[in-house]
Amino acid sequence: MALKFTLLVLPLLAHIVNGQGPATFDIGKYGGKPNANIDQALSSAWKEACAATTPSTVVVPKGTFLLNQLTLAGPCKAPIELQVQGTIRAPSDYTLLPDKNAEWITINYVDHLTISGGGVFDGQGKEAWAKNDCGKNPKCVKLPLNLSFNFITNSIVRDVTSQDSKNFHVNVIGCKNVTFQQFTVSAPADSINTDGIHVAKSEGISVLDTVIKTGDDCISIGDGMKELHIERVSCGPGHGISVGSLGKGATEEDVAGIYVKNCTFTDTQNGIRVKTWPSAPAKLQITDLHYEDIIMNNVENPIIIDQEYCPWNQCKLDSPSLIKISKMTVKNIKGTAANPVAVSLVCSKAAPCENVEVGDVDLAYSGNQGPISTKCSNVKPTFVGKQNPPICANAAQSS
Q: What pTM value is reported for the model?
């Protein structure tokens, strides 16, 4: 982690040591005014900063600014920072966006990007959530997400908030060596499909010291993800930290190296979850999943592998998932479950889970629907330390 931080800040430090500070490009100098549209001002400031041969900072000062839709693109000639001190606000009516197939703010092909400043990206999603029928309608209207990062490298997003996105808050695709630190996601529990941070087809992503409150997965992990480190994250409300759902696409890529440590889940639908579709073509591997030192506060499903994931009856269960889960460790998980089935490890008949180790689980049931229990199929875990409740007591019968 120390080497990664050095790689992020070294180019900027070298410039400062030589007696120069980053050049500043304030959107006010490009016509950006509070309570007015800043599409053109922010675009112009970014273009000049990106063309600079020394480190530069684009500043959105304190105040509230309106932004319809924008793509900020590299490559830039030197490290660049987007410092958002105020609030950038999206239109509440998503039909007003110029490009219905694009996201609200998209950033592409930038090396050594910093986003900071303590400000807010406000997606104003309430109106869109009310019209979201994507759970039942496969031809539903595509809603824009707040922040889309594509092919970003050696970068950090820190001390900013994504608020009330119409769709996912953050999407990370094709990125390498990117850190989210002291990042905040804020949306109500009933906001539909508002995953906090979605990562896929990327490598070396870290989410640290972050608070995520949303209506869907706090962090969702798609195919092709390698080396994801999640530490000191507070999740809730939300649907937990989920690998998947995976399996629907025949060309989906393996997932490997997911590390979740020192995290807290409060009043979430799930804690740590892996979900794959049955009756689906993908045969990828999900391997090296490590969960350690986790606190569960009134979590419906604290620990869950679901290889029969089939929401809204969108599939058939007659053909098991072809995805293999292996090398998974679950250690030191404590707290309370809101569901009597505190641990559910439902693996695939076609590709049973392998090398699953469970150690020191201590969960109490906070409800009154019966005794606490666990459910296991097609998995034979090894155990270390104490297990409360006893896990996979029926594994011999259901494997």
A: 0.93
